[in-house]
UniProtKB/TrEMBL annotation:
<keyword id="KW-0479">Metal-binding</keyword>
<dbReference type="InterPro" id="IPR006254">
    <property type="entry name" value="Isocitrate_lyase"/>
</dbReference>
<dbReference type="InterPro" id="IPR039556">
    <property type="entry name" value="ICL/PEPM"/>
</dbReference>
<dbReference type="GO" id="GO:0004451">
    <property type="term" value="F:isocitrate lyase activity"/>
</dbReference>
<dbReference type="GO" id="GO:0019752">
    <property type="term" value="P:carboxylic acid metabolic process"/>
</dbReference>
<dbReference type="InterPro" id="IPR040442">
    <property type="entry name" value="Pyrv_kinase-like_dom_sf"/>
</dbReference>
<keyword id="KW-0456">Lyase</keyword>
<protein>
    <recommendedName>
        <fullName>Isocitrate lyase</fullName>
    </recommendedName>
</protein>
<feature type="active site" description="Proton acceptor">
    <location>
        <position position="221"/>
    </location>
</feature>
<dbReference type="Pfam" id="PF00463">
    <property type="entry name" value="ICL"/>
</dbReference>
<dbReference type="InterPro" id="IPR015813">
    <property type="entry name" value="Pyrv/PenolPyrv_kinase-like_dom"/>
</dbReference>
<feature type="binding site">
    <location>
        <position position="183"/>
    </location>
    <ligand>
        <name>Mg(2+)</name>
    </ligand>
</feature>
<keyword id="KW-0460">Magnesium</keyword>
<dbReference type="GO" id="GO:0046872">
    <property type="term" value="F:metal ion binding"/>
</dbReference>
Amino acid sequence: MQNYDQTIADAAKAIEGNKTWEAINPESVSRMRLQNRFKTGLDIAKYTAKIMREDMAAYDANSAEYTQSLGCWHGFIGQQKLIAIKKHFGDTKRRYLYLSGWMVAALRSEFGPLPDQSMHEKTSVSSLIEELYTFLRQADARELGGLFRQLDAARDAGDAAAEKDVLAKVENFQTHVVPIIADIDAGFGNEEATYLLAKQMIEAGACCIQIENQVSDEKQCGHQDGKVTVPHEDFLAKIRAVRYAFMELGVDDGVIVARTDSLGAGLTKQIAITNEPGDLGDQYNSFLDGDYIESADDIQNGDVVIKANGKLLKPKRLASNLFQFRKGTGEDRVVLDCITSLQNGADLLWIETEKPHVGQIAAMVDRIRAVVPDAKLVYNNSPSFNWTLNFRQQVFDAWSEAGKDVSAYDRAALMSEEYDSTDLSIEADRRIQSFQKDASANAGIFHHLITLPTYHTAALSTDNLAKEYFGEEGMLGYVAGVQRKEIRQGIACVKHQNMAGSDMGDDHKEYFSGDAALKASGKDNTMNQF
Protein backbone atom coordinates (compact mmCIF):
# COMPACT_ATOMS: atom_id res chain seq x y z
CA MET A 1 0.00 0.00 0.00
CA GLN A 2 1.23 3.53 -0.80
CA ASN A 3 2.13 6.21 1.74
CA TYR A 4 -1.17 7.83 2.72
CA ASP A 5 0.06 11.44 2.56
CA GLN A 6 1.64 10.78 -0.83
CA THR A 7 -1.66 9.55 -2.28
CA ILE A 8 -3.27 12.80 -1.11
CA ALA A 9 -0.48 14.84 -2.68
CA ASP A 10 -0.86 12.93 -5.98
CA ALA A 11 -4.60 13.63 -6.03
CA ALA A 12 -4.05 17.29 -5.17
CA LYS A 13 -1.61 17.63 -8.06
CA ALA A 14 -4.19 16.18 -10.48
CA ILE A 15 -6.83 18.61 -9.21
CA GLU A 16 -4.52 21.64 -9.13
CA GLY A 17 -5.22 24.25 -11.79
CA ASN A 18 -8.70 22.98 -12.63
CA LYS A 19 -10.95 25.71 -11.27
CA THR A 20 -14.10 23.69 -11.92
CA TRP A 21 -12.73 20.91 -9.68
CA GLU A 22 -12.43 23.08 -6.56
CA ALA A 23 -15.09 21.05 -4.74
CA ILE A 24 -13.12 17.82 -5.22
CA ASN A 25 -11.34 16.88 -1.99
CA PRO A 26 -7.85 15.36 -2.58
CA GLU A 27 -8.06 13.20 0.54
CA SER A 28 -11.41 11.77 -0.53
CA VAL A 29 -9.95 10.98 -3.97
CA SER A 30 -6.93 9.32 -2.36
CA ARG A 31 -9.20 7.18 -0.17
CA MET A 32 -11.22 6.04 -3.16
CA ARG A 33 -8.01 5.17 -5.01
CA LEU A 34 -6.70 3.15 -2.06
CA GLN A 35 -10.04 1.35 -1.84
CA ASN A 36 -9.78 0.40 -5.52
CA ARG A 37 -6.20 -0.83 -5.77
CA PHE A 38 -6.84 -3.16 -8.73
CA LYS A 39 -8.26 -1.37 -11.74
CA THR A 40 -8.59 -4.38 -14.07
CA GLY A 41 -8.67 -8.15 -14.02
CA LEU A 42 -5.25 -8.20 -15.69
CA ASP A 43 -3.85 -6.19 -12.78
CA ILE A 44 -5.15 -8.93 -10.50
CA ALA A 45 -3.80 -11.77 -12.68
CA LYS A 46 -0.30 -10.24 -12.74
CA TYR A 47 -0.33 -9.58 -8.99
CA THR A 48 -1.58 -13.05 -8.03
CA ALA A 49 0.65 -14.92 -10.52
CA LYS A 50 3.67 -13.43 -8.75
CA ILE A 51 2.30 -14.60 -5.40
CA MET A 52 1.73 -18.11 -6.70
CA ARG A 53 5.21 -18.38 -8.22
CA GLU A 54 6.75 -17.24 -4.93
CA ASP A 55 4.68 -19.81 -3.05
CA MET A 56 5.80 -22.56 -5.44
CA ALA A 57 9.44 -21.65 -4.84
CA ALA A 58 8.86 -21.60 -1.07
CA TYR A 59 7.34 -25.10 -1.26
CA ASP A 60 10.32 -26.37 -3.25
CA ALA A 61 12.55 -25.18 -0.40
CA ASN A 62 10.31 -26.51 2.38
CA SER A 63 7.38 -28.88 1.84
CA ALA A 64 5.72 -27.59 5.01
CA GLU A 65 4.99 -24.40 3.04
CA TYR A 66 2.06 -25.91 1.13
CA THR A 67 -0.97 -23.88 0.05
CA GLN A 68 -4.73 -24.40 0.42
CA SER A 69 -8.05 -23.30 -1.00
CA LEU A 70 -11.77 -23.91 -0.79
CA GLY A 71 -14.11 -23.95 -3.78
CA CYS A 72 -16.54 -21.02 -3.92
CA TRP A 73 -19.60 -20.79 -6.16
CA HIS A 74 -20.52 -17.15 -5.53
CA GLY A 75 -18.60 -13.93 -4.97
CA PHE A 76 -20.17 -13.49 -1.54
CA ILE A 77 -18.96 -16.92 -0.42
CA GLY A 78 -15.41 -16.15 -1.58
CA GLN A 79 -15.53 -12.76 0.12
CA GLN A 80 -16.70 -14.19 3.45
CA LYS A 81 -14.02 -16.88 3.28
CA LEU A 82 -11.24 -14.30 2.92
CA ILE A 83 -12.73 -12.05 5.61
CA ALA A 84 -12.78 -15.08 7.93
CA ILE A 85 -9.18 -16.00 7.08
CA LYS A 86 -7.95 -12.49 7.84
CA LYS A 87 -9.95 -12.45 11.09
CA HIS A 88 -8.72 -15.81 12.36
CA PHE A 89 -5.16 -15.92 11.01
CA GLY A 90 -4.21 -12.28 10.48
CA ASP A 91 -3.17 -12.66 6.83
CA THR A 92 -4.01 -14.56 3.66
CA LYS A 93 -0.56 -16.06 3.05
CA ARG A 94 -0.67 -19.37 1.13
CA ARG A 95 -4.49 -19.33 1.04
CA TYR A 96 -6.27 -19.17 -2.33
CA LEU A 97 -9.70 -19.57 -3.90
CA TYR A 98 -10.71 -22.48 -6.11
CA LEU A 99 -13.23 -22.13 -8.92
CA SER A 100 -14.87 -25.50 -9.42
CA GLY A 101 -16.34 -26.44 -12.78
CA TRP A 102 -18.56 -28.88 -10.89
CA MET A 103 -20.14 -26.05 -8.89
CA VAL A 104 -20.44 -23.80 -11.93
CA ALA A 105 -22.41 -26.57 -13.64
CA ALA A 106 -24.51 -27.38 -10.59
CA LEU A 107 -25.25 -23.81 -9.46
CA ARG A 108 -24.49 -21.21 -12.13
CA SER A 109 -26.00 -22.47 -15.37
CA GLU A 110 -29.06 -20.90 -16.98
CA PHE A 111 -30.17 -24.43 -17.81
CA GLY A 112 -30.54 -25.10 -14.10
CA PRO A 113 -28.55 -27.67 -12.12
CA LEU A 114 -26.34 -29.77 -14.39
CA PRO A 115 -23.87 -32.62 -13.87
CA ASP A 116 -20.15 -31.93 -14.30
CA GLN A 117 -20.08 -32.73 -18.03
CA SER A 118 -19.20 -29.37 -19.66
CA MET A 119 -22.79 -28.72 -20.65
CA HIS A 120 -23.03 -25.34 -18.91
CA GLU A 121 -22.29 -22.02 -20.60
CA LYS A 122 -18.53 -21.68 -20.73
CA THR A 123 -18.70 -17.92 -20.25
CA SER A 124 -20.19 -18.54 -16.80
CA VAL A 125 -16.68 -19.60 -15.71
CA SER A 126 -15.06 -16.26 -16.53
CA SER A 127 -18.12 -14.45 -15.18
CA LEU A 128 -17.66 -16.16 -11.82
CA ILE A 129 -13.98 -15.19 -11.72
CA GLU A 130 -14.96 -11.56 -12.30
CA GLU A 131 -17.69 -11.83 -9.66
CA LEU A 132 -15.33 -13.32 -7.08
CA TYR A 133 -12.81 -10.53 -7.54
CA THR A 134 -15.55 -7.89 -7.46
CA PHE A 135 -16.56 -9.13 -4.02
CA LEU A 136 -12.94 -9.38 -2.82
CA ARG A 137 -12.24 -5.84 -3.95
CA GLN A 138 -15.40 -4.72 -2.16
CA ALA A 139 -14.07 -6.41 1.01
CA ASP A 140 -10.96 -4.25 0.67
CA ALA A 141 -13.04 -1.10 0.22
CA ARG A 142 -15.25 -1.94 3.20
CA GLU A 143 -12.37 -2.65 5.59
CA LEU A 144 -10.41 0.42 4.50
CA GLY A 145 -13.57 2.53 4.80
CA GLY A 146 -13.81 1.47 8.43
CA LEU A 147 -10.19 2.48 8.98
CA PHE A 148 -10.81 5.87 7.37
CA ARG A 149 -13.73 6.47 9.75
CA GLN A 150 -11.46 5.54 12.66
CA LEU A 151 -8.89 7.99 11.32
CA ASP A 152 -11.45 10.79 11.21
CA ALA A 153 -12.60 9.96 14.75
CA ALA A 154 -9.02 10.07 16.05
CA ARG A 155 -8.46 13.44 14.41
CA ASP A 156 -11.73 14.81 15.78
CA ALA A 157 -10.68 13.68 19.27
CA GLY A 158 -7.21 15.18 18.84
CA ASP A 159 -5.65 11.78 19.58
CA ALA A 160 -2.35 11.85 17.68
CA ALA A 161 -1.29 8.40 18.89
CA ALA A 162 -4.52 6.78 17.69
CA GLU A 163 -4.22 8.65 14.37
CA LYS A 164 -0.70 7.30 13.88
CA ASP A 165 -1.83 3.77 14.73
CA VAL A 166 -4.70 3.87 12.22
CA LEU A 167 -2.46 5.32 9.49
CA ALA A 168 -0.05 2.42 10.02
CA LYS A 169 -2.93 -0.02 9.55
CA VAL A 170 -3.94 1.74 6.32
CA GLU A 171 -0.42 1.76 4.92
CA ASN A 172 0.18 -1.90 5.88
CA PHE A 173 -3.23 -3.07 4.70
CA GLN A 174 -3.31 -6.57 3.19
CA THR A 175 -5.72 -7.05 0.34
CA HIS A 176 -8.36 -9.78 0.28
CA VAL A 177 -7.38 -10.45 -3.35
CA VAL A 178 -5.65 -13.84 -3.59
CA PRO A 179 -4.89 -16.27 -6.43
CA ILE A 180 -7.75 -18.23 -7.96
CA ILE A 181 -7.11 -21.67 -9.44
CA ALA A 182 -9.76 -21.75 -12.17
CA ASP A 183 -11.18 -24.90 -13.77
CA ILE A 184 -11.48 -24.73 -17.56
CA ASP A 185 -12.63 -28.38 -17.71
CA ALA A 186 -11.30 -30.00 -20.91
CA GLY A 187 -11.22 -26.65 -22.73
CA PHE A 188 -14.83 -26.50 -23.98
CA GLY A 189 -13.96 -27.44 -27.55
CA ASN A 190 -10.88 -27.49 -29.75
CA GLU A 191 -7.62 -25.70 -28.97
CA GLU A 192 -8.87 -22.40 -30.44
CA ALA A 193 -11.94 -22.54 -28.19
CA THR A 194 -9.64 -23.27 -25.25
CA TYR A 195 -7.46 -20.27 -26.10
CA LEU A 196 -10.44 -17.91 -26.38
CA LEU A 197 -11.93 -18.99 -23.06
CA ALA A 198 -8.53 -18.91 -21.34
CA LYS A 199 -8.10 -15.31 -22.51
CA GLN A 200 -11.46 -14.36 -21.10
CA MET A 201 -10.63 -16.05 -17.78
CA ILE A 202 -7.27 -14.29 -17.53
CA GLU A 203 -8.83 -10.92 -18.39
CA ALA A 204 -11.27 -11.55 -15.52
CA GLY A 205 -8.32 -12.07 -13.15
CA ALA A 206 -7.29 -15.74 -13.29
CA CYS A 207 -3.56 -16.30 -12.79
CA CYS A 208 -3.87 -20.09 -12.77
CA ILE A 209 -5.86 -22.31 -15.13
CA GLN A 210 -6.46 -26.01 -14.60
CA ILE A 211 -7.15 -28.15 -17.67
CA GLU A 212 -7.81 -31.89 -17.91
CA ASN A 213 -6.98 -34.56 -20.49
CA GLN A 214 -10.50 -35.79 -21.12
CA VAL A 215 -12.32 -35.52 -24.42
CA SER A 216 -14.14 -32.20 -24.35
CA ASP A 217 -17.50 -33.41 -25.62
CA GLU A 218 -17.38 -36.61 -23.56
CA LYS A 219 -16.21 -34.93 -20.33
CA GLN A 220 -17.27 -36.52 -17.04
CA CYS A 221 -16.71 -35.56 -13.42
CA GLY A 222 -13.40 -37.03 -12.26
CA HIS A 223 -15.25 -39.14 -9.70
CA GLN A 224 -17.73 -40.68 -12.12
CA ASP A 225 -17.45 -43.55 -14.54
CA GLY A 226 -17.20 -43.29 -18.33
CA LYS A 227 -14.18 -40.97 -18.56
CA VAL A 228 -12.48 -40.79 -21.96
CA THR A 229 -8.96 -39.40 -22.43
CA VAL A 230 -7.27 -37.88 -25.48
CA PRO A 231 -3.84 -38.65 -26.97
CA HIS A 232 -1.04 -36.55 -25.51
CA GLU A 233 -0.53 -34.34 -28.55
CA ASP A 234 -4.17 -33.22 -28.42
CA PHE A 235 -3.80 -32.28 -24.76
CA LEU A 236 -0.46 -30.53 -25.28
CA ALA A 237 -2.02 -28.36 -27.99
CA LYS A 238 -4.48 -27.07 -25.39
CA ILE A 239 -1.71 -26.47 -22.83
CA ARG A 240 0.09 -24.41 -25.47
CA ALA A 241 -3.15 -22.55 -26.23
CA VAL A 242 -3.44 -21.53 -22.55
CA ARG A 243 0.21 -20.45 -22.46
CA TYR A 244 -0.26 -18.33 -25.57
CA ALA A 245 -3.27 -16.68 -23.91
CA PHE A 246 -1.23 -15.83 -20.81
CA MET A 247 1.65 -14.46 -22.85
CA GLU A 248 -0.51 -12.46 -25.25
CA LEU A 249 -2.02 -10.67 -22.25
CA GLY A 250 1.34 -10.04 -20.59
CA VAL A 251 0.90 -12.51 -17.74
CA ASP A 252 4.10 -14.35 -18.60
CA ASP A 253 4.29 -16.10 -15.24
CA GLY A 254 0.71 -17.42 -15.37
CA VAL A 255 0.37 -20.94 -13.99
CA ILE A 256 -1.01 -23.99 -15.81
CA VAL A 257 -2.23 -27.05 -13.91
CA ALA A 258 -2.33 -30.18 -16.08
CA ARG A 259 -4.87 -32.64 -14.75
CA THR A 260 -4.85 -36.32 -15.67
CA ASP A 261 -7.93 -38.49 -15.26
CA SER A 262 -6.14 -41.55 -16.58
CA LEU A 263 -6.22 -43.43 -13.27
CA GLY A 264 -9.98 -43.82 -13.53
CA ALA A 265 -10.37 -43.48 -17.31
CA GLY A 266 -10.39 -46.75 -19.18
CA LEU A 267 -11.38 -45.40 -22.59
CA THR A 268 -10.03 -43.32 -25.46
CA LYS A 269 -11.87 -41.85 -28.41
CA GLN A 270 -8.86 -41.77 -30.70
CA ILE A 271 -5.89 -43.86 -31.62
CA ALA A 272 -2.85 -41.64 -31.43
CA ILE A 273 -0.81 -40.64 -34.48
CA THR A 274 2.60 -42.29 -34.38
CA ASN A 275 5.55 -41.88 -36.72
CA GLU A 276 8.08 -44.27 -35.25
CA PRO A 277 8.30 -46.92 -32.54
CA GLY A 278 8.57 -45.48 -29.05
CA ASP A 279 7.31 -41.99 -29.82
CA LEU A 280 4.57 -40.43 -27.72
CA GLY A 281 1.74 -41.69 -29.92
CA ASP A 282 3.18 -45.19 -29.91
CA GLN A 283 3.43 -45.13 -26.11
CA TYR A 284 -0.21 -44.05 -25.82
CA ASN A 285 -1.34 -46.80 -28.20
CA SER A 286 0.71 -49.41 -26.35
CA PHE A 287 -1.83 -49.29 -23.52
CA LEU A 288 -4.76 -50.24 -25.77
CA ASP A 289 -6.56 -53.49 -25.05
CA GLY A 290 -6.98 -55.83 -27.99
CA ASP A 291 -5.84 -58.97 -29.73
CA TYR A 292 -2.65 -59.52 -31.65
CA ILE A 293 -3.35 -61.01 -35.05
CA GLU A 294 -1.31 -63.12 -37.43
CA SER A 295 -3.10 -62.64 -40.76
CA ALA A 296 -5.80 -60.75 -42.61
CA ASP A 297 -8.15 -63.64 -41.88
CA ASP A 298 -8.33 -62.39 -38.28
CA ILE A 299 -9.72 -59.04 -39.41
CA GLN A 300 -13.50 -58.61 -39.61
CA ASN A 301 -15.46 -55.98 -41.50
CA GLY A 302 -14.90 -52.57 -39.90
CA ASP A 303 -12.04 -53.67 -37.65
CA VAL A 304 -9.17 -51.29 -36.98
CA VAL A 305 -5.64 -52.67 -36.91
CA ILE A 306 -2.50 -50.85 -35.78
CA LYS A 307 1.11 -51.79 -35.35
CA ALA A 308 2.06 -51.64 -31.67
CA ASN A 309 4.87 -53.23 -29.69
CA GLY A 310 6.22 -54.56 -32.98
CA LYS A 311 3.09 -56.56 -33.71
CA LEU A 312 -0.28 -56.13 -35.41
CA LEU A 313 -2.89 -55.25 -32.80
CA LYS A 314 -6.66 -55.22 -33.28
CA PRO A 315 -7.86 -52.81 -30.53
CA LYS A 316 -11.12 -53.61 -28.82
CA ARG A 317 -13.72 -51.16 -30.04
CA LEU A 318 -16.94 -50.73 -28.08
CA ALA A 319 -20.42 -50.12 -29.44
CA SER A 320 -19.90 -46.45 -28.51
CA ASN A 321 -17.00 -46.37 -31.03
CA LEU A 322 -14.58 -45.87 -28.14
CA PHE A 323 -11.45 -47.90 -27.63
CA GLN A 324 -10.54 -49.57 -24.36
CA PHE A 325 -7.27 -49.53 -22.40
CA ARG A 326 -5.89 -52.65 -20.78
CA LYS A 327 -6.91 -53.04 -17.16
CA GLY A 328 -4.14 -52.25 -14.68
CA THR A 329 -2.45 -49.65 -16.89
CA GLY A 330 -3.92 -46.59 -15.13
CA GLU A 331 -0.92 -45.68 -13.00
CA ASP A 332 1.51 -46.11 -15.90
CA ARG A 333 -0.65 -43.83 -18.04
CA VAL A 334 -0.85 -41.26 -15.23
CA VAL A 335 2.94 -41.17 -14.90
CA LEU A 336 3.41 -40.76 -18.66
CA ASP A 337 0.72 -38.04 -18.76
CA CYS A 338 2.36 -36.09 -15.96
CA ILE A 339 5.92 -36.27 -17.26
CA THR A 340 4.77 -35.31 -20.76
CA SER A 341 2.74 -32.34 -19.50
CA LEU A 342 5.59 -30.97 -17.37
CA GLN A 343 8.02 -31.37 -20.25
CA ASN A 344 5.69 -29.42 -22.51
CA GLY A 345 4.72 -26.28 -20.62
CA ALA A 346 2.61 -27.24 -17.61
CA ASP A 347 3.70 -25.97 -14.19
CA LEU A 348 1.71 -28.14 -11.79
CA LEU A 349 -0.01 -31.51 -11.91
CA TRP A 350 -3.40 -32.75 -10.78
CA ILE A 351 -3.84 -36.49 -10.41
CA GLU A 352 -7.47 -37.41 -9.87
CA THR A 353 -7.58 -40.45 -7.59
CA GLU A 354 -10.38 -42.65 -6.34
CA LYS A 355 -9.38 -42.36 -2.68
CA PRO A 356 -7.25 -40.13 -0.43
CA HIS A 357 -4.25 -42.38 0.18
CA VAL A 358 -0.83 -40.82 0.74
CA GLY A 359 1.00 -44.00 -0.23
CA GLN A 360 -0.81 -44.33 -3.55
CA ILE A 361 -0.17 -40.71 -4.50
CA ALA A 362 3.47 -40.84 -3.37
CA ALA A 363 4.17 -43.97 -5.44
CA MET A 364 3.13 -42.15 -8.63
CA VAL A 365 4.86 -38.89 -7.71
CA ASP A 366 8.13 -40.69 -6.97
CA ARG A 367 8.10 -42.13 -10.49
CA ILE A 368 7.36 -38.70 -11.99
CA ARG A 369 10.08 -37.03 -9.92
CA ALA A 370 12.62 -39.55 -11.13
CA VAL A 371 12.31 -37.72 -14.47
CA VAL A 372 11.15 -34.23 -13.36
CA PRO A 373 12.60 -33.68 -9.89
CA ASP A 374 10.59 -30.57 -8.97
CA ALA A 375 7.20 -32.00 -9.97
CA LYS A 376 4.42 -30.69 -7.71
CA LEU A 377 0.74 -31.49 -7.37
CA VAL A 378 -2.53 -29.71 -6.86
CA TYR A 379 -4.68 -32.29 -5.07
CA ASN A 380 -8.43 -32.56 -4.78
CA ASN A 381 -9.39 -33.33 -1.17
CA SER A 382 -12.71 -34.31 -2.67
CA PRO A 383 -16.13 -34.45 -0.97
CA SER A 384 -16.71 -37.39 -3.31
CA PHE A 385 -14.51 -39.46 -0.99
CA ASN A 386 -16.07 -40.94 2.12
CA TRP A 387 -13.19 -39.68 4.27
CA THR A 388 -14.39 -41.32 7.47
CA LEU A 389 -14.82 -44.78 5.96
CA ASN A 390 -11.65 -44.56 3.82
CA PHE A 391 -9.39 -43.69 6.72
CA ARG A 392 -10.99 -46.10 9.17
CA GLN A 393 -10.44 -48.87 6.62
CA GLN A 394 -6.85 -47.72 6.06
CA VAL A 395 -6.19 -47.99 9.80
CA PHE A 396 -7.99 -51.35 9.95
CA ASP A 397 -5.80 -52.69 7.13
CA ALA A 398 -2.59 -51.30 8.64
CA TRP A 399 -3.36 -52.79 12.00
CA SER A 400 -4.26 -56.14 10.43
CA GLU A 401 -0.96 -56.24 8.52
CA ALA A 402 0.89 -55.38 11.75
CA GLY A 403 -0.76 -58.34 13.49
CA LYS A 404 -2.95 -56.24 15.77
CA ASP A 405 -6.27 -57.73 16.88
CA VAL A 406 -9.09 -56.07 14.91
CA SER A 407 -11.77 -58.67 15.65
CA ALA A 408 -13.86 -56.03 17.44
CA TYR A 409 -14.39 -54.19 14.16
CA ASP A 410 -16.48 -54.95 11.07
CA ARG A 411 -14.44 -53.48 8.21
CA ALA A 412 -17.48 -53.05 5.96
CA ALA A 413 -19.45 -51.22 8.70
CA LEU A 414 -16.77 -48.89 10.03
CA MET A 415 -18.85 -45.83 9.11
CA SER A 416 -21.22 -46.74 11.93
CA GLU A 417 -21.55 -44.22 14.77
CA GLU A 418 -20.91 -47.00 17.29
CA TYR A 419 -17.22 -46.90 16.33
CA ASP A 420 -16.81 -43.11 16.77
CA SER A 421 -15.08 -43.27 20.17
CA THR A 422 -12.93 -46.33 19.49
CA ASP A 423 -9.14 -46.31 19.26
CA LEU A 424 -9.37 -47.16 15.55
CA SER A 425 -11.60 -44.18 14.78
CA ILE A 426 -9.52 -41.83 16.89
CA GLU A 427 -6.42 -42.88 14.93
CA ALA A 428 -8.30 -42.49 11.64
CA ASP A 429 -9.32 -38.94 12.59
CA ARG A 430 -5.72 -38.16 13.51
CA ARG A 431 -4.65 -39.26 10.04
CA ILE A 432 -7.40 -37.19 8.39
CA GLN A 433 -6.27 -34.17 10.39
CA SER A 434 -2.65 -34.59 9.29
CA PHE A 435 -3.45 -35.72 5.73
CA GLN A 436 -2.54 -32.42 4.07
CA LYS A 437 0.69 -32.06 6.04
CA ASP A 438 1.66 -35.71 5.44
CA ALA A 439 0.79 -35.65 1.73
CA SER A 440 2.72 -32.42 1.16
CA ALA A 441 5.78 -33.84 2.90
CA ASN A 442 5.67 -37.29 1.33
CA ALA A 443 3.69 -37.04 -1.92
CA GLY A 444 4.71 -33.73 -3.51
CA ILE A 445 1.43 -31.92 -2.96
CA PHE A 446 1.95 -28.15 -3.21
CA HIS A 447 -1.71 -27.18 -3.09
CA HIS A 448 -4.61 -28.81 -1.28
CA LEU A 449 -8.15 -27.85 -2.24
CA ILE A 450 -11.68 -28.98 -1.57
CA THR A 451 -13.60 -28.60 -4.80
CA LEU A 452 -17.15 -28.04 -3.56
CA PRO A 453 -17.23 -27.62 0.22
CA THR A 454 -19.46 -24.55 0.20
CA TYR A 455 -22.08 -26.44 -1.83
CA HIS A 456 -22.31 -28.82 1.12
CA THR A 457 -22.11 -26.18 3.87
CA ALA A 458 -24.94 -24.22 2.24
CA ALA A 459 -27.11 -27.35 2.16
CA LEU A 460 -26.23 -28.36 5.73
CA SER A 461 -26.81 -24.93 7.29
CA THR A 462 -30.09 -24.52 5.39
CA ASP A 463 -31.27 -27.93 6.58
CA ASN A 464 -30.52 -27.03 10.19
CA LEU A 465 -32.29 -23.66 9.94
CA ALA A 466 -35.34 -25.13 8.19
CA LYS A 467 -35.66 -27.90 10.80
CA GLU A 468 -35.62 -25.40 13.68
CA TYR A 469 -37.50 -22.42 12.20
CA PHE A 470 -40.39 -24.39 10.71
CA GLY A 471 -40.49 -26.65 13.77
CA GLU A 472 -41.09 -26.12 17.47
CA GLU A 473 -38.22 -23.64 17.90
CA GLY A 474 -39.80 -21.07 15.58
CA MET A 475 -37.94 -17.75 15.56
CA LEU A 476 -35.55 -19.06 18.20
CA GLY A 477 -34.24 -21.42 15.52
CA TYR A 478 -32.85 -18.40 13.67
CA VAL A 479 -31.87 -16.34 16.71
CA ALA A 480 -30.02 -19.11 18.58
CA GLY A 481 -28.80 -20.99 15.54
CA VAL A 482 -27.67 -18.03 13.44
CA GLN A 483 -27.79 -14.49 14.77
CA ARG A 484 -26.59 -15.11 18.32
CA LYS A 485 -23.67 -17.11 16.95
CA GLU A 486 -22.85 -14.37 14.44
CA ILE A 487 -22.70 -11.78 17.21
CA ARG A 488 -20.63 -13.89 19.58
CA GLN A 489 -18.24 -15.14 16.89
CA GLY A 490 -17.70 -11.65 15.52
CA ILE A 491 -19.09 -12.47 12.07
CA ALA A 492 -18.88 -9.18 10.17
CA CYS A 493 -21.93 -10.09 8.12
CA VAL A 494 -24.22 -9.69 11.14
CA LYS A 495 -24.16 -6.02 10.09
CA HIS A 496 -25.54 -6.99 6.72
CA GLN A 497 -26.24 -3.40 5.60
CA ASN A 498 -22.59 -2.55 6.14
CA MET A 499 -21.46 -5.70 4.33
CA ALA A 500 -23.65 -4.87 1.35
CA GLY A 501 -21.97 -1.46 1.03
CA SER A 502 -24.28 0.94 2.85
CA ASP A 503 -21.51 2.71 4.81
CA MET A 504 -19.35 3.02 1.71
CA GLY A 505 -22.29 4.57 -0.08
CA ASP A 506 -22.67 7.07 2.76
CA ASP A 507 -18.98 7.98 2.47
CA HIS A 508 -19.39 8.63 -1.23
CA LYS A 509 -22.55 10.67 -0.73
CA GLU A 510 -20.65 12.85 1.72
CA TYR A 511 -17.79 13.26 -0.78
CA PHE A 512 -20.23 14.18 -3.55
CA SER A 513 -22.83 16.25 -1.66
CA GLY A 514 -21.15 17.42 1.54
CA ASP A 515 -23.56 18.39 4.32
CA ALA A 516 -26.52 17.84 1.98
CA ALA A 517 -25.83 14.10 1.83
CA LEU A 518 -28.78 11.92 2.87
CA LYS A 519 -27.02 9.12 4.73
CA ALA A 520 -28.44 5.78 5.82
CA SER A 521 -26.20 5.21 8.83
CA GLY A 522 -27.81 7.63 11.27
CA LYS A 523 -29.14 6.96 14.76
CA ASP A 524 -32.31 5.25 13.50
CA ASN A 525 -30.38 2.59 11.57
CA THR A 526 -31.20 -0.68 13.34
CA MET A 527 -27.71 -1.98 12.52
CA ASN A 528 -26.59 0.14 15.50
CA GLN A 529 -28.04 -2.62 17.71
CA PHE A 530 -25.08 -4.83 16.89
